[in-house]
Amino acid sequence: xxxxxxxxxxxxxxxxxxxxxxxxxxxxxxxxxxxxxxxxxxxxxxxxxxxxxxxxxxxxxxxxxxxxxxxxxxxxxxxxxxxxxxxxxxxxxxxxxxxxxxxxxxxxxxxxxxxxxxxxxxxxxxxxxxxxxxxxxxxxxxxxxxxxxxxxxxxxxxxxxxxxxxxxxxxxxxxxxxxxxxxxxxxxxxxxxxxxxxxxxxxxxxxxxxxxxxxxxxxxx
Length: 221
Hints:
By secondary structure, this protein is α+β, with helices and mostly antiparallel strands. The chain contains nine helices and eight strands. Strands 5-6-7-8 form a four-stranded antiparallel β-sheet. A two-stranded antiparallel ribbon has the order 1-4. α3 packs across α4. It is globular. The chain starts with a helix and ends with a helix.
């Protein structure tokens, strides 16, 4: 159905590329090589910027150092110790374990179900499947639990490494993240002591912006 709706909207080559991405067809090393062909935004060591390419490179480095796929290391070091039984690294299949929400893309005014989409395009930058409950449990382990030593945790928070600080009216300082993948969008917010946590996952062609989402916690008080 997606192929039919896209016919005539984009060139056949682009449609073919979309079909290839939906069913796999890219790798972390391929994504990293493509990024390295571009000019750097700044000289090494002079600044930093958040982007998916950094996570692709980290995934490759994990495999180089350990000799194991990054997914195995994440499972052994994070998912199992924290008891995240409904979270898995899956970047080699377009199937999502049931039950699950459905993702949609609006094409020519019609919503198309694109839930079955191979996440190999994301690799270590997002090739995982989880639930809101497991995301909350992960942040408890990250902010208050055994994942990081106190000094490492301070470095993460002070530098904003992979985590964002939000100032929410009525709730003060919260830590978390927002992100998405082809029809899915997730926001997660937590106090540093994890006595207050909120994770919301939304699907559809139109979802609120992060600025709009940040108004929800205060409005619910």
